[in-house]
């Protein structure tokens, strides 16, 4: 990439969650990602940092931006990238996650990117395979690269993370994005508020170091960043909200509710968006929205993470020991 030999060696082999990262680890990844943004904006985007390395994307859940940005990130670093299409693989014939992982491991990849509906799937895989593992979302547990790309977007727009007020709004209960963001923002010294109906808040959320706000008016008051979350209806059994119309009326972000935040507050959404459910189109496409920047930062962050994990200075001899 740029001259990475001057950057400190990243101390971890896997990226399983934000919880295991120190503030220094996080800043190091964000600094590397800043350099990767410049590469993606060039006419010639290909580098040779991961030339000769093999990356496998193993996605058990639907994904548009996360899978494609991991693929592009790998290609921009010069890696050979393979997308395992779970829908047409032996997984459909009943193969277990571990058996699939062991089969892929025997092909000697250097890095495995996994998304799975069960919390802990990435950590389990990391114990079984001989390569680096990146968690691209495990159930309602963590989605570390999403939190990193959100932090990069905020840091580039506001110049800092510490001291900012961030309101995370919507379906916190089912959201790995919310969990990873809360951990990261707290680690870097931001103040986090969560706004949701009580049915969409996990029990014990206050112990994660956030302020719980029952209304958008309260949660958005003076906020620097408003992060909206998708209502994850595919993870809901039963009714968590009375009706979509009522949900939008009380918790959907529209121009009126956004007035409570600072005039220059950023509006964010990890995607995919449900327009008219958690966010009005005029806001999603409006001047305060940085939703497209988030997508751009996603490629940069994934380049930074893979490059850091596969840093050849990090004792490569221990791989496949
Ligand atoms: C999120 C996810 O999959 O957890 N999306 C994403 O990674 N871009 C959030 C969501 O699905 O709502």
From TrEMBL:
Binding site for carbamoyl phosphate: 65-66, 115, 143, 146, 271-272
Gene3D superfamilies xrefs: Aspartate/ornithine carbamoyltransferase
The EC number(s) this enzyme carries: 2.1.3.2
Domain Aspartate/ornithine carbamoyltransferase carbamoyl-P binding: start-end pairs: 13-155
Coiled-coil spans in chain: none
Keywords noted in UniProt: Pyrimidine biosynthesis, Transferase
NCBIfam families recorded: asp_carb_tr (TIGR00670), PRK00856.1 (NF002032)
Name used for this protein in its record: Aspartate carbamoyltransferase
Organism listed in the record: Borborobacter arsenicus
Top-level taxonomy: Bacteria, Pseudomonadati, Pseudomonadota, Alphaproteobacteria, Hyphomicrobiales
